[in-house]
Amino acid sequence: MFKKVTIQADQRGLLFHKGSYVKKLNPGTYRFFMWSPTTVVVLNITKPFVVEGKELQLFLHDEDLVRELDIERVQDHEYALHYENGQFVQLLKPGTYAYWNILGKHTFLHADIRNPELPAEVDRSIIPKLIVHVQSFEIGSCESGFLFYDHVLQRELSSGKYYFWKGPISVAVKPIDLRQQQMDLMGQEIMTEDKVTLRLNFVCQYKIIKPLRALEMKSFDEQIHIQLQLMLREYVGALKLDELLKRKEDVASFILTRLHEKSEQFGVQFLSVGVKDVILPGEMKEILNTVLLAEKKAQANLITRREETASTRSLLNTAKLMDENQTLFRLKELEFLEKICDKIGSISLTGGGDLLERLSSLIGGRKEESS
């Protein structure tokens, strides 16, 4: 009695005798006695060479078998990208792998993960298939980034997307924003030279021009904030309240000049500064309002007196002109009579004489009667 084993064209057989590998079997039909301790393992040559329960090293002494296999060894510090006929198949971790080379061509791209950055040869289109083993970092168009391996600075990164292996070396990227930024100092309590405590709202615009210098400073924003506070106290503390209110616009130029002296230290270009608000205590507001009201009243009285003086001077000049010119006097008298007649319904006159003199005497007589 025989047992028959048929091996197809896309298969290969591995002959074992009492559990030990003997040789490779090519496509064909094979017969063995039923009681024979011989067994055959049939493998599909389109699949990786894997024999369950057996190590690959047990088969590598067979030169005939090895000629039909591509053997690939991946070291402990490596990943290997497996391609078949130019198409990406999978990522291989450290170990030894074998693939049949009969129907397809296998190639491998090795990457040393002790250098975490992905090699340029890796097609970025396959990265989604490597997402478990790869991490990415993005640097914006208005940013500069710094690459660190195990907390050691490697280099500066320009705008773009970068990929790194997840391996034994930790990778970190710290971006620095290069756009114009604004810092607000709100409600800064400062005492003037005459012991008046007030609050200032201050604003500062700046741009980082040396990102590495900014990165080397701990709490970069906080240090700029403190410098602004100290400069404000220096300026305001040397002025009395009245002087400060008069010279409020000078604060910006003073602070900006002082900040320019610190530009190299911070790696920053300071663009502009300014006082948004000066907030006084409640009682000080009342005092200033009282002073302002008194000043405005005094100004109003002064204007009134000036107008009265001008009016009196005008009357005096008019009187002098009429005294010197009788015609002008008569015209002024006619103007005066015209205004009076506008308020009288009708006037009847009898007899002769000068009309103007009779109207004047008439109006004068009525005034005497009414008195």
Strand order of the largest sheet: 3-2-5
Helix content: 25-40%
The coarse overall form would be: rod-shaped
Task: Tell me the number of helical segments per DSSP (H or I, 4 or more residues long).
Answer: 9
Number of strands: 18
N to C succession of SSEs? EEEEEHEEEEEEEEEEEEHHHHHEHHH
SS-derived structural category = alpha+beta
The percentage of residues in β strands lies in 35-45%
On the 0 to 100 scale, the average pLDDT is 84
Uncertain residue ranges: none
CA radius of gyration is 52 Å
Q: Distance between termini?
A: 166 Å
Number of domains: 3
Biggest sheet architecture: 3 strands, antiparallel
Describe this entry's structure for a reader.
The protein is of the alpha+beta class. 33% of the residues lie in helices and 35% in strands. The chain folds into three domains: 2-112, no CATH class; 129-177, no CATH class; 181-280, Tetrahydropterin Synthase, Chain A, CATH 3.30.479. The strands form seven sheets. A three-stranded antiparallel β-sheet has the order 3-2-5, with no helix packed on it. The protein has a three-stranded antiparallel β-sheet with strand order 8-7-10, with no helix packed on it. Strands 13-12-15 form a three-stranded antiparallel β-sheet. Helix 3 (220-236) packs across helix 5 (250-260) and helix 7 (282-324) crosses helix 8.
Topology of this protein?
Elements: E1 2-7, E2 11-17, E3 20-25, E4 28-33, E5 38-44, H1 63-66, E6 69-74, E7 78-84, E8 87-92, E9 95-100, E10 106-112, E11 134-139, E12 143-149, E13 152-157, E14 160-165, E15 171-177, E16 181-191, E17 197-208, H2 211-216, H3 220-236, H4 241-246, H5 250-260, H6 263-266, E18 268-279, H7 282-324, H8 326-341, H9 355-370
Antiparallel strand pairs: 1-4, 2-3, 2-5, 6-9, 7-8, 7-10, 11-14, 12-13, 12-15, 16-17, 17-18
Helix pairs in contact: 3-5, 7-8
